[in-house]
User: What shape does this take?
Amino acid sequence: MRAELLMVGTELLLGETTDTNATYLARCLADLGIDLHYKSTVGDNWVRMTGALATALERSQIVIVSGGLGPTQDDLTREVVAAATGRTLVFDERAWEEITRLLRGRGRPITENNRRQAMLPAGAVRIPNPVGVAPGIWLDLNPRLVICLPGVPDELRAMMQETVMPRLRARTGASPLYSRVLRFRGIGESALETELMDLIERQSTPTIALYAGSGEVRIRLTCRAGSAEEAERLFAPVEQEIQKRVGDKLYASGTEPIEALVAKALTVQKATVAVAESCTGGLLGERLTSVPGASAYFLGGVLAYANDVKERLLGVDKETLKSHGAVSAEVALQMADGVRRTLGADWGLGITGIAGPGGGTETKPVGTVFIACASARGNRVVHHRFVGSRDMIRRRAALEALHLLYQALRDFDPA
Amino acid sequence: MRAELLMVGTELLLGETTDTNATYLARCLADLGIDLHYKSTVGDNWVRMTGALATALERSQIVIVSGGLGPTQDDLTREVVAAATGRTLVFDERAWEEITRLLRGRGRPITENNRRQAMLPAGAVRIPNPVGVAPGIWLDLNPRLVICLPGVPDELRAMMQETVMPRLRARTGASPLYSRVLRFRGIGESALETELMDLIERQSTPTIALYAGSGEVRIRLTCRAGSAEEAERLFAPVEQEIQKRVGDKLYASGTEPIEALVAKALTVQKATVAVAESCTGGLLGERLTSVPGASAYFLGGVLAYANDVKERLLGVDKETLKSHGAVSAEVALQMADGVRRTLGADWGLGITGIAGPGGGTETKPVGTVFIACASARGNRVVHHRFVGSRDMIRRRAALEALHLLYQALRDFDPA
Assistant: This one.
């Protein structure tokens, strides 16, 4: 069973919007064990949409179209699907009821163009939209299948979860694709491939693929299997061999973000954390609290952008600031230790650095970041020189702070 | 001049990576006035890559391929481009020199597979990579043009800026595409279209397009023009007419993120801001400090996740916490006012809410968020009930806090 994505929207071709829908849909298909071979993006243009849809229907069994279901004139998906499949558009009373109920509930006027959103190709089934106006379209052309979803991410996701995923699961019955991700730090992609080359060439079930992530390299093992247990049996010997060769660089498995790994370790150890951020301005706190239930281990933090705030709220020494500068190992340590003590946390993290584009000096160029981790058991501080934009430097600094804490939590793990 | 993007990478079809490169490349092409009609994504697969490249070369003059230039076995772009254009691959000494110098500089071993990265299709020109290993490919097939760039975002961007953009600018000489974005709050997409329907249907230069953004609706006016002044002359009458009809809902123009608008307003008014965040955990601080030079107006903040931190660092009243609850208008106001006073800022923002998925009650369901803005001139507080995931609620809360401050800054603007 092969699927294809057709993303519709001129805004996607003007660089104004990053297409997170495609990522999400791809993930859903992988979970269902449906192969995704192509993804295409076209603007709100009749000719190009029609051409792309025809191509997709030729080479793929399932075509998922996202976007173009809005009320306005350039929303053409309904018409294009009807035309490409030789159907008329039919007004769907039930869809219209839901549209008007939702608009009334939000106190929004019901305009004539909203009626377009209740039109479905003849023979299609409406996909209910629990969080927005536009219903989706499920058009079964047996054996082909066309699914149309709105481009608004929240709506698309809710409709996939509630309706499309269960229906596709029932329809395909294919062996799901299982994958296992091993994550490495301290080794580059090509060096890792060299270590494992013979294994990569020999292996077919599971396959082994390498890719560079942010601050890490990942190996993905993939196979089709009848059950998770069967997949596990296929993965185990390959994983053991990888462990044997490069196990010292392996720091985690799975695709959970580092903040989730930190959250688990803190929860298991019944420990709490507080953060003191300068150049990252809240990014570290944001990542730590992005995990549901973060209040169990995250007490809070201080965004100490101004030096005065570092002194008054974190107790950073004025003399240290003067002699070593705000961007220094000493200040990072005092920030981490200060926030830990002030908030009464087991662990404190401190970040101070120069995210740029201005503010760099010869000895401390843009990208210089000091990250400290403090606890009753001792302190650590690391010095980085990141390259890239302000945004990249900040993201990388927060990431490395999470890794510093994770490593410390593992080293000090009482279990 | 028509361009097409071909994004290569199995990881893009497995939903593990969001394709921000496509967004960036689309933006670059728009800036150059080059039309982008198609974007396709395929996995690291010889047959599908070759097919997609052939299709692209048939219908577009410029094809930009991103990804597949790494050192590993599944990096096929070099071979595919050579095969599709009937060329051999040639070892490029200069590229090899740069590759080995960079790897040595990073203390990374030079492996046999790195040599593949120095291979270029015969007749192609190397695109230097200032931040990574893989050089790019510029293959002029006059009139067709194939450009290959690595999939690593930092490398792709640096190479576009330094080499590809200047060369494309010199080559095309087309009238650039100008666009002007008008941003509205307090009116929905369909209501806005209804107000402007006759205008949208009548207009061709500039064209008028509507799209829903996060917490706002945008109108984009687009035209080709010989100069910015000429574009301005074309935009002016249409913009005036839009102003006349729905000007009361217009809050900004341009595509600058709201934090940049806030940054400008604070800078003009020589004012400072501090934040007190609970459910957003640093997201608001992160957005305010994402603007270069944020230290001019951002003093810092307190991430008051635990109630104890709200009391001790922000002076929130224990009784208020008890009687109204941590998620209340009263606590939001005390947080905003507390952080403003503690940090000595002109403006204070406070956010408290329930991001979920747990923690909701009947009277305060998940998505309930109170946002306060405090200043010497007075305080404001707003109550929201956002829908969606934890992440969406948090992002929306930070966004609305920025809008609350922006509106207050405009209302109190001394100028």
